[in-house]
Design a protein that fits this description.
It comes from Shewanella sediminis (strain HAW-EB3). This is Tryptophan halogenase. 7-chloro-L-tryptophan binds at residue 78. InterPro entries: FAD/NAD-bd_sf, Flavin-dep_Halogenase_NPB, Flavin_halogenase, Trp_halogen. One of its GO terms (molecular function) is nucleotide binding. The chain is α+β, with helices and mostly antiparallel strands. The protein has a domain at 5-75 and 158-231 and 321-381: FAD/NAD(P)-binding domain (3-Layer(bba) Sandwich). 38% of the residues lie in helices and 19% in strands. The protein contains 17 helices and 21 strands. It has helices at 12-26, 54-61, 66-72, 89-92, 109-119, 124-128, 131-136, 161-176, 221-226, 292-302, 346-360, 369-396, 404-409, 417-426, 445-454, 466-489, 493-503, and strands spanning 5-9, 33-38, 76-78, 80-84, 97-101, 156-158, 179-182, 185-190, 196-201, 206-208, 211-214, 231-233, 242-249, 260-265, 268-274, 278-285, 312-316, 320-322, 326-327, 330-332, 338-339. Strands 5-4-14-15-16-13-17 form a seven-stranded mixed sheet. A six-stranded mixed sheet has the order 7-2-1-11-20-19. Strand 1 (5-9), helix 1 and strand 2 form a beta-alpha-beta unit. It starts with a strand and ends in a 5-residue tail after the last helix. The mean pLDDT is 93.
């Protein structure tokens, strides 16, 4: 049987990202049609509203203008995640922080890391990249004269999730001929072989398709409710299971941080994301270590006693992923695939990654399903496990002992065997490219370096030659000079956004 009719159940960011990836792939197969069924009653969750640099490549490949994207989705630039108070305040100061930058570290990363470990003068991120200074100066990553999707430094975006989903939806329909149906799926009908046969909707009747994409969010209508694929719970590794979210209006003249702020507290952390006209704030915590009333009080304190001025909601977070992501003739993407706390913008990252991976080799016949299903599940299972490790890294490296939450996070029994092996290796050797043998690790060497040494991982310092030390010192001085130059030349973040909204960027 040929696969000709594909349906995506669920809209939002996940559904419409998948629609663009699959719709673009379908342009090369005139027999393949893509339909998206979206409930008119379910709002976009929009937890976090942050992305990582890989999204730029996807948006450009979809043919979306960066100028239009910035104007329509309240976009601000994101060059980093600034981690505040993730280390012991008594040892590292009341306002300790480090940056997980989005710019690639210097090509002399190993030599500079070794030199930094020997002396630890400036912060690690300052030592290996000029972007640290740019972020702290609240500068943009590019100028108004730079072409779309190009910049002086690596960057991603903060965005309005509802507006982003709308833009993606329009693009998928107009550019890639994706059909849109507004309806609620009331029943999923399975065939005798256990595959999904059809969907029963409230407004357009029963619809038959050949292949199904589950983007129905936490409801997981297809992969869970219909196909009964088990959920792999990761609560023993990642403790947080709730978030209180609120949107706070901002002064239109105030400076806009070009980074996400992630501030640790006694039982979790707080995200703070600035758009051009508001902040999205989320108080993430573990209900095992903090009750809901205390969490609300803590968030109110963070907002200067003004939480009651705004509406807020509490979101339960079941942390983990599906045991299988592709079952029978159905693939789960987005929140239907799994969920981890939004510490490193993992939701959009994994959705974009897995949707692109599926679209690049989309099956055209039922005979291809078994082999492709096996590969997809293997790749995505590995990717999810390594993302769990990367998130856990932020907690287990902390030297905070001011609450049981942080003490328990340091217990080696709450880490995977792979993470334990890597940390043991990195206590003796600086990480290198060969430690990340799979291209399906969505967080790579550079990401680990920023976090490992931002949190002061003690790595044994190897003996070095005087020439290596001199070379590292010269290169470090060069990075400092480049940083000064960029801080002087790059525009203030808000100023750049105002110019883009007024004049636009140069088209590629």
């Amino acid at each position: 049987m040929d696969i000709k009719r594909v349906v995506i159940v669920g809209g939002g960011t996940a559904g419409w990202l998948a629609a663009n990836h699959l719709g673009k792939a379908a342009l090369n197969n005139e027999l393949l049609s893509v339909t998206l069924i979206e409930s008119p009653d379910i709002p976009t969750i929009g937890v976090g509203e942050g992305t990582v640099p890989a999204i730029r490549q996807s948006l450009q490949s979809f043919g979306i203008s960066e100028t239009e994207f910035i104007k329509r989705c309240d976009v601000t630039f994101k060059q980093s995640i600034k981690f505040a108070n993730w280390l012991d305040k008594e040892v590292h100061g009341q306002h300790n922080f480090y940056h997980h930058l989005f710019d690639m570290p210097s090509s002399l990363g190993k030599e500079l890391t070794q030199a930094w470990l020997s002396k630890k003068g400036r912060t690690y991120a300052e030592t290996i990249s000029p972007q640290h200074a740019v972020c702290e100066a609240y500068k943009g990553p590019k100028t108004i004269s730079d072409a779309e999707y190009k910049g002086h430094l690596g960057y991603a975006y903060h965005l309005n999730a509802a507006k982003f989903a709308k833009l993606l939806g329009e693009n998928a329909q107009e550019r890639f001929n994706v059909q849109h149906i507004s309806a609620n799926v009331q029943e999923v009908i399975l065939g005798e072989d256990g595959e999904i046969k059809s969907l029963v909707t409230d407004s357009v009747g029963t619809l038959d398709f050949d292949f199904y994409i589950d983007c129905s969010g936490f409801a997981s209508l297809l992969i869970d409710k219909a196909l009964k694929v088990p959920f792999v719970d990761k609560a023993e590794q990642l403790f947080v299971d709730k978030a209180i979210t609120v949107q706070v209006p901002t002064d239109p003249a105030s400076a806009i941080p070009p980074f996400t702020i992630a501030t640790a507290h006694q039982a979790g952390w707080i995200w703070d994301i600035a758009l051009s006209n508001r902040r999205g704030v989320g108080f993430v915590y573990s209900s095992k270590y903090m009750d809901d009333e205390t969490a609300v009080c803590k968030l109110d304190h963070y907002l200067g006693g003004k939480l009651s001025e705004h509406s807020y909601r509490t979101i339960p977070m079941k942390v983990g992923y599906r045991e299988r992501f592709w079952e029978k003739n159905c693939v789960a993407l987005g929140l239907a695939q799994g969920f981890l706390e939004p510490l490193e913008a993992t939701s959009i990252l994994l959705t974009d990654f897995s949707a692109g991976f599926l679209a690049n080799r989309f099956p055209t016949s039922a005979a291809q399903l078994d082999g492709m299903r096996q590969q997809f599940n293997q790749v995505m299972g590995y990717a999810w496990e390594r993302v769990v490790d990367f998130i856990k890294l932020h907690y287990c490296l902390s030297d905070r002992i001011d609450s049981q939450f942080w003490i328990d996070n340091g217990d080696p029994g709450t880490m995977s065997d792979e993470l334990s092996k890597r940390l043991s290796l990195w206590s003796s050797f600086i990480p290198n490219r060969e430690d990340f043998f799979s291209k399906f690790e969505v967080f790579d060497l550079e990401n680990y370096l920023y976090v490992l040494y931002g949190m002061n991982l003690p790595t044994q310092v190897a003996l070095s030659r005087a020439s290596d030390e001199s070379n590292a010192r010269m290169h470090s001085d060069k990075i400092a000079r480049i940083a000064d130059q960029l801080v002087n030349e790059l525009p203030n973040h808000r100023e750049l956004l105002e110019k883009i909204n007024r004049y636009g960027l140069q088209e590629v």
